[in-house]
Amino acid sequence: MTTSTSARVGSADAGPAPVLAARTRGLRKVYGRTVAVDRVDLDVPVGAVLGMLGPNGSGKTTTIRMLLGLVRPTEGEVELLGQALPDGVAAALPHVGALVEGPGFHPFLSGRENLRRVAAFEPLLATGSARQAVEDALERVGLGAAAHRRYRGYSLGMKQRLGLAAALLVPRRLIVLDEPTNGLDPAGTREVRGVIADLHAAGSTVVVSSHLLSEIEATCTHVAVLHRGTVVAQGGLAELLQADSSSLLVTTPDVEQALNALRAGRISARPTEEGVRVELIGTTAPAVLEALVRAGVAVHEARRHRTGLEDLFARLTEAEEGDHNLSAVDTIEEGAR
């Protein structure tokens, strides 16, 4: 079943803004003998753009559906905008816009007519402003010129755009997008990136689910990596990549002298095009620089090697292949805000 959720439930105020826009503890979903999600503890900080990253079948969509109250968990707790679900769903959902598992609209109506029907049930949208809100949303996602066409004639990318427009009819505290660039060409993908950047700049919290590492790295401030139904890493994207960095790149013209000095100190190093790469195993960056300077090596620059998200993802998921303990979670703690 495909769902396009635009938060049509209730109109009560969701209350004061919490520190976390969404939170799960011990979240588990079982279908028959299949464990789709297993003991997921997820934190979505307010104002973050959090990327839920994982291969197909990793539990991303099931987790999102439980976050939105579309699926009841087998076990565990869910909080959305400070409201415990399911009791708080009517208070929270009007402030949430979502596109989950692809949009679902009436095939014989135009894009504009479909969006007007959605707007008619939008609790945060005043009746007199609905038409303008629809036009603004269509333009925002690049569908203004095709708004008169029937939905059944839309391409997959255009259908994705219309679903995104439905989620953006009014300002939201939380936007949840499940594979938002699915079916989009490169230009459409760039436009979605721009929309996410605008939402972030406006103070909205955004959760983006994707199996495309490049999209997560280009748009997100935080990341949660899912594999086999559990979270194997989560935290700030920069902190995750920095924490996985275990080497120092030193730019120097004195490569041989640097290698000799480091090896004399039992520090593992190898030459690179610009100098040497030092493995920070059993040592620290200051100790490396001290050894080089003491040996008279000219150090032009020293920087930590930045691990790419692709490398980090491969390391995490490959490690899990041989580990049947699905409760293991590598969490990078957030610093003081």
Describe the overall structure.
With 337 residues, the chain is an alpha/beta fold. It has two domains: 20-241, P-loop containing nucleotide triphosphate hydrolases (Rossmann fold); 246-304, Alpha-Beta Plaits. It has eleven helices and 15 strands. The chain has helices at 60-67, 89-92, 111-120, 130-140, 156-167, 186-201, 213-219, 237-243, 255-264, 285-294, 309-321, and strands at residues 20-31, 34-45, 49-53, 75-80, 83-84, 96-99, 174-178, 205-210, 222-227, 230-236, 247-251, 269-271, 275-279, 301-304, 330-331. The strands form three sheets. Strands 6-7-8-3-9-10-15 form a seven-stranded mixed β-sheet, sandwiched between helices. A hairpin with a 2-residue loop joins β9 and β10. The longest helix is centred in the middle third of the chain and has 16 residues, at 186-201. It is elongated, with a radius of gyration of 24 Å.
**Assembly category:** single chain
Helix content: 25-40%
**CATH H-level name of the largest domain... which superfamily?**
P-loop containing nucleotide triphosphate hydrolases
Query: What is the 3D shape?
Result: elongated
Question: Please, how many helices?
Answer: 11
Radius of gyration: 24 Å
Mind summarizing the main beta sheet?
7 strands, mixed
Instruction: Determine the strand fraction and express it as a percent band.
Output: 15-25%
Mean pLDDT comes to: 84
Family: Belongs to the ABC transporter superfamily.
Pfam family, one: ABC_tran
Organism: Saccharothrix syringae
Keywords: ATP-binding, Nucleotide-binding, Transport
